[in-house]
Amino acid sequence: MKIFIGNMICPCCIEVVRLLLQKMEIAYVSIEAGIVELKETVSTEQLLLLGRELKKYDLELSVDLHIILTEKIKKLIIELVYYNREQLPTNLSDYLSQKLNYNYRYLSNLFKLQEGETIEHFFIENKIHRAKELLTFGYLSLNQTADMLNYSSIAYLSKQFKKVTGQSPSFFKKAFFK
Fold first, then answer.
1. Is 65's pLDDT higher than 70?
2. Against a cut of 0.70, is the pTM above it?
């Protein structure tokens, strides 16, 4: 049995869900951003209780197809930003359309409606969040960080970084290590 959990997009959220499932003694096969595969079907009462517990962490049990599709978009973007080391084979819109078998305009409109922001903005925000992590905890240079996140140049990463955070990556890194 698979369940879908809205707003579960980062490793911390996955850990919260893992701990809740253990606490509730619900056996699972796997937990990924937005999707949990359970070992067996659980009762409606258990699902309701899980839903209430998830809400405490701003997570929500999802059964709506639109929410599920939005979570799949987020999951694909998170995988690209955090786990993919190769260059995106096509542009983001073509990639998402191919992976989800939906027209990108539909995906884009749905995402904007559900999340209040564009897919591109979500993608950039996550790339900059990852860049901040790499600069502070990965001990990588700006050049290595740009390469790891598939930026075409340091200048382009710096421009997006400053637009999102209000400061340059160099200033951010220096301020962190003071």
1. no
2. no
